């Protein structure tokens, strides 16, 4: 016995009904639904599939029906299209996500806010303390290099950096920055 024949022997009456429904009605039903959904083929195929699934669920009733079941299938398909239309109208309009993609990420915003807070706190320092911090921390110079640029002794740069950091810490704490 061939494999195809063995598989055909094991088909259930429901499967036979579904094959017959599909073979006989899927093409005309798809053409009908395409007109209802303004040519949207993917949507039409989904509606036809859902219609045939509902036919399968009601296989017992359909087998007892006399005459063609195409009117039943057309009615079910039309109702599926109407329900889909109503549900899309009831839902809020979907928004395009493109503008969200252009917004900076939270970490970029957080970094910008931290930098603004730090700039304000640096503004609270005396010019001498601010210069010492800028030369040593932001320009990454050694104390000796900063002393050369600022034209002050290295000990003065160390002292200014110490007091600048202490003042900066207090200023940031006042602004609610604890890190």
From TrEMBL:
It comes from the Bacteria. One of its GO terms (biological process) is DNA-templated transcription initiation. One of its GO terms (molecular function) is sigma factor activity. Residues 21-90, 121-169 form the RNA polymerase sigma-70 region domain. It holds the Pfam family Sigma70_r2. Gene3D superfamilies: 1.10.1740.10, Winged helix-like DNA-binding domain superfamily/Winged helix DNA-binding domain (1.10.10.10). Transmembrane segments: none annotated. The keyword Membrane does not apply. Keywords: DNA-binding, Sigma factor, Transcription, Transcription regulation. Belongs to the sigma-70 factor family. ECF subfamily. This is RNA polymerase sigma factor. It comes from Streptomyces natalensis ATCC 27448. The lineage of its organism: Bacteria, Bacillati, Actinomycetota, Actinomycetes, Kitasatosporales.
